Amino acid sequence: MRSLQTLVSPKSIAIIGASERFHQNAGRVMVNLQKSKYSGEIYLVNPNYDTISGIHCYPSVLEIKEEVDLACIIVPSKHTPEILRECVKKQVKSVIIISSGFSESGPDGINREEELKEIVKGTETAVYGPNSPGFYHFIGNWGISFSPRFEPKNFHEGSVGLISHGGSLGRAVLDANEKGLGFSYWLSPGNEMDITINDCFEFLISDPSTDTILLIIESISEEERFFRLLHQAYIKQKPVILLPIGHSKISRMAVKYHLGRNNDYSIPWDMVNHPGLVKAESIDEVVALSWLFDTYKKAAGKRTAIFSWAGATSIYLADLCDKYGIQLQPLSSELQQKMKTITGIEKSFMNPLDLTTIVYDDLSKLTTCLEVLHKSGDFDNIIVPFPFQVDYQNEVLSEQMKKLMEERDSIFIPIFMSQGYQGELAIDILKETKKPYFFHENTAIKSLSAYINYSETQRQEEEHNEKTIKSC
Amino acid sequence: MLVKDAMTRTSIKFFENDYIDRAAKTLLESHMKGGLVYNVRDELAGCFTEHNLLEGLLNQNKVLSEIYQTNFCFLNEMDDLNNLKLNDQEIWPIFNKNRQITGFLTKEQYMAAYARTSQVELGRMDAIFNSAHNGILSIDLEGRITSMNPPAEKMAMTTKEKAIGKFLTDVVTPSGLLNVIRTGKRHTEKYRVGKRKYLTHRTPLYDGKTLVGAVGVFQDISEIEFVSSELESVKQLLKEQETILDNSTDGICITDGDGAIIKCNQSFRQLFDVRHESPDYIKDIARQVEAKGRSHNIMETSKDNKNSLIITANPIKNSSNQIERVVINVKDMTEFDALRSELAKTKSILEHMHLTERSETFIAKSPEMERLLKTVQQVAKVDVTVLLSGESGVGKEEIAKLIQQSSPRSGEPFIKVNCGAIPESLMESELFGYEGGAFTGALKKGKAGLFEQANNGTIFLDEIGEIPNHLQVKLLRVLQEMEITRVGSAKTTKIDVRVIAATNRDLKELVLEGSFREDLFYRLNVIPISIPPLRRRVEDIPILIDAYARMFAAKYHKHLKFTKKAIQVLTNYQWPGNVRELVNMIERIYVTASNLEVGEQEVLSLFSKGDNQRMSHDQAIVVNQLLPLKEAVDLLERELIYKASQSEKSYRGIARVLEVNPSTIVRKVKKLEGGLLKS
C-alpha cells in the first residue's frame, strides 16, 4: 500500500532524461511542466547536457544538493534500474517512470520490472509506473505528461477524479473538460509495479476535492481490497463510476501486451452488485454520469417530467424512462389547467407533456409552459428534447432553459435528437452554461436514472440505518 | 516489351508533295518525331524523321518526296523489341495483324524502350544474383573483385562495398580464380575453409573473344556432407532396429498391400511357416485390412501350444491414402490374461471404495444449475465476498466449498460458522476470539476466534441473517478493515480472509424490517448467487437419486433398484427440504427396504408415514409451538398434574397414576405455586 501524497504535491521535481529535443517524448515532459502553473522547483538531469534552454542540467540526481520530492524518469528502459537506484539513494520520495519496455514487452521486460521492484522493496521510495502516461493535477493546473497536446492553464477544475488503465481512453474522457466536466485528478499508474489502481482509488476516496470517482480499468489485483474501498467510497457518498474493459477472450490477450498484466480471471462485473458502484457501458455514459454528478452534486429527488411539443418524441422518451426505471409522476390538475390556458387548446395534458405544434404560432407559449412547469416545484428533473432541427424554436427554447437553469429549481436534461450536423445555434447557447447536454437519448435517460438512483439509495440507507440503530 | 508499347500510334498521313515546313509544323504541334508519307494512290511511299526534315530545310527542299526514305521494312505491332534484328533505318512503319498501318517507331523510341527493358532485366538479374543461394564472385583481368553477392559476402565475412576493387586474395583465401584469368580455363574444385566445406566452379568471362575476367560460383556443401553422415547413422539405426525386431518376443511381420511378406522377425517365423511364400492366413489378414482401410484385430489360438494370441494388423498408407504396407503384430496373451483378471478384481474393489466417499463435484445437470456452477467457477477465481442465498437444503454449503476449492485459497483453511447455532452471548468471542481472563469460563491463555483460524483462507458464515444487531456493526468493521480485536483486548490483528456468507432468509426483507443493517447487506451482497430450490430443477432429481443410491448401497451393502414409477414419484414431489430432504429420504428407503426393488408404493408409503408423523392428532402430546425445553417441561408437568387431579383427589393418588413418588408431586406443586388451584 503506497500513499500518493508526495506524488501529487511535490515541492520539487527532477526530470531525469530531460532533453533539448522538445518534439520527442522526453523533451516534452519538461516543456509541459514549464507550461503549467507548477510552483515548486524543477531540476533537469541528463549527463549529455550542461544546460537545456538555459536551465542547468545535472549529470545525475545525486548531484542535486536540495531535496527531491518527485523524480520523473523518461530514459530508455535498460537504464532505468541504475537511475532508480540513484533515486533511492537520493531518498526521492516518489518516482514516476514514464519509460516503457517492461512487463508489457515480454520476458526481458518482466525481468527488468522485477529488478525495479527489488530496488524499491523496503525503501521509502514509491514508484508510479513504469509505462505510465503520467498524471494530471487539475486543481493545481499542472501535470506530468509527454502529450503533444497539453494545456494545463486551461484546466477546468472540478470534483471528478479519473483513474484509467493506459492513456488513450482516459484522455478521451478528459477531453470533456472542454465542455465543462470538471476534474480533480487523472491518475494512470501504468504497469502498477508499486503504486496500484487500488492505491490511487484509496487516494481519491480520501481526497477532499474529489466527489466522484471514474474508473476505466482492465483488471484489478487485490480484489478484496478493491471491494472494501468501494464500500468506503459509498460510506463517504462518493459515487464510483466504472467502465471495465478487456473481457472478451481476445481483448484479455491484448491486455497482456498493453500493461503486462494477466487478466485470465477478471472480475465478472455483470454479477457485481453494490449500490456504490455505477456500471457504465460506454465512455459516452461515463462522461454523462460524471457530468451530472459534477454539476448538480446529489440529485434533489426522483420526480421527473418530460417537456416536449413533439408527440412521438415524448412517447419514445417515456418508453426509455420506463425501461430505466424513472417514474413520470402525473401532472397535477392545476398544472393541466394552466397548460390548457396557456396553449389555448382543449387537450388533456399529461406527463410526458406534448404541447403540440401549436407553439409554432406563438413561441411565448413554449417558453411560458416551461417556466410554469419549472416554477411549480412539482418536479426535480425536467427532460427537454429538441426533437429535430427547427432553428428558431430550438433557439428560443435553449435561451429560456439557460435562463431557468440559473435559478436552479430543477435539473434540466436537454437532449438534441437530430441526427444531422450537431452544429445548430441552440446547442451553442446551452454550451455556454457548461452544464450537461446530451446527443444520445439512451445515454441521457440511462445516466439520469443511475444518477437519481445513487442519491435515492443513499437517502434510503440513512433512513434505514437510523431505524436499525433505534431498534438496537 | 512489344513494339506496340513503344511506338507512336498515329493516323496522320503525309503526302509526297506536302510542303516540308508545313510537315515540320504538324510534327511540332502533334509532338511527333517522324511521319509516314503516302503517294496519290494512298500507298505508303516512304517515311521521314525530324532529322530528315532538318536536312530538307537546310537544303531548301520544298516537298516531302525530296527528303523521305523510300527504303524501309515494316515491323509488326506484336514483335518483341528484344528479338528485333534491326538494320540502319531511323524509322520503321508499323502494321498490325490485319496488315493495316497503325503508326511508326523511331530509333529513339526503340532505344528508350530497350533501355527500359534492359533496366528491368538488369534488376531481375541483380535480384537473382543477390538472392542466389550460392556465392558468386567475379574479378577482372587484374584480379580485382568486380562483384559479389550476399552469400559470397557472408562466406568471405565482408561487404560488397569493402570488397569491390580489392585484390582477390586480400578478401578471400582461395586463389583459384587467378588461375582462370591466367589460363582462360574453367575448373571445379572442393576446398575447406575452417570447419566448412565448399564446392566451386570457376569460369572465365569473355567479351566476344577477349578474356575480360573470371567468375567463381561456390557452394557451401557442409550441409550435404552432414546429410551424408546423417544417412550413415540412419543406416546404423536401421540395423539396430532390425536387431530389436528380431529379439522381440512379439511376432512382427510387414507385408505389402497384397499380403506378400516383406520382412518378418524371428518370433513370427516360429509361429508361422513362412519358408516359401506368405501363408494364405496372412494374406487373408492383409485383405481384411485392405477392405476395412484401418486396423484389424483377431484373437487366435496358437497351433502348437494352444496359447491365446492376439493379432493386430495395421495399415500404413501412402500420401494418396492407399495401403502400402501392413504391419502385423502377434502377441502371446497368456500372461496378459492373468493380469487382466487381476485388474478386474482390483477395479471392482476400487469402485466400491469410491462409492463410499462423497463425490467431490456438485451433482446437477439442469441448465440453471450448470449456468450457476459456471458462474461459481468464475467467481471463485476472484477474491471477493460472495453471498449465497437459497432455501435450506439446496446445497449452499456445497457451493461454498466449491468456491473455496476452485479459488486461489484452496490450500488454506475453510472455516464454517453457523451463525444460527452459536448462542448470542458467545458469538463475539467465537468469531473474534478472546484474551486470557476476558470473562468467566474463559481459557487462561485466551483463544483465537474463527476469523483468526480462517486467516489466509476462507470463512463461511452460514445463516448470516441470524447475526445479532450489535455484532453486525462489528462484522462490517472487520470486513472493512480486515483486522480483528479479540474480546478483552485493545490490540488489533491484521487478517486476510475471504468471506462467503449464506442465508435462507430474504436479507433485503430483513433490511426493510430493520433487523439487518443495510450497509452490511451491501457489503456482503457484492456478488449475490441465488441457488434455486430443487422443485425448480427437477432434471437434477434422477441424477441425485442415482448418486446417493450408489453411496447408500455401499454404506448399507444393499443394492436396490428403483422402478421408473418410483423415480417419477420422487421427481414429482415438491421437496420443501430440498436436496437434504431427498438424501434423507433415500437413506430411509435403504434402511427400511425389504425388497430389492423399490416401487411406487414403497415410496408413497414413506411419504405418507412422514406426513402422519408430522400431522397426526391421535398422539398423546402434540406440540403446536416451539419454546425453550425447560419451559416446555414445566408446562407439561403442570398439565399432567392438573389432568391427574381431575380424577385423583390426593397427592398420593396423583403420584400413583403418574408413577412417581408422592414427595415429588408435593415438591412440584409447591414449585408451581398453587398454579394447580388456579387452573
UniProtKB/TrEMBL annotation, chain A:
Leader sequence residues = none
Q: What is this protein called?
A: Acyl-CoA synthetase (NDP forming)
Q: Specify the species.
A: Cytobacillus firmus (Bacillus firmus)
A single MF term (Gene Ontology): ligase activity
Instruction: Identify the keywords attached in UniProt to this record, alphabetized.
Output: ATP-binding, Ligase, Nucleotide-binding
Domain of life assignment? Bacteria
User: InterPro entries in the record, alphabetically?
Assistant: Acyl-CoA_Synth/Transferase (IPR051538), CoA-bd (IPR003781), NAD(P)-bd_dom_sf (IPR036291), Succ_CoA_lig_flav_dom (IPR032875), Succinyl-CoA_synth-like (IPR016102)
Q: Which residues form the CoA-binding domain?
A: 7-102
Automatic annotation (TrEMBL), chain B:
UniProt keyword Cell inner membrane present: no
Q: Where is the PAS domain?
A: 121-175
The protein's name in its UniProt record? HTH-type transcriptional regulatory protein TyrR
Where is each Sigma-54 factor interaction domain found?
362-591
- GO biological process per UniProt: regulation of DNA-templated transcription
The entry lists its GO molecular-function terms as:
ATP binding; DNA binding
Keywords carried by this UniProt record: Aromatic hydrocarbons catabolism, ATP-binding, DNA-binding, Nucleotide-binding, Transcription, Transcription regulation
Coiled-coil regions in this chain?
none
Q: Which CDD domains match?
A: AAA (cd00009), PAS (cd00130)
Q: Note the SMART domains from the entry.
A: AAA, PAS
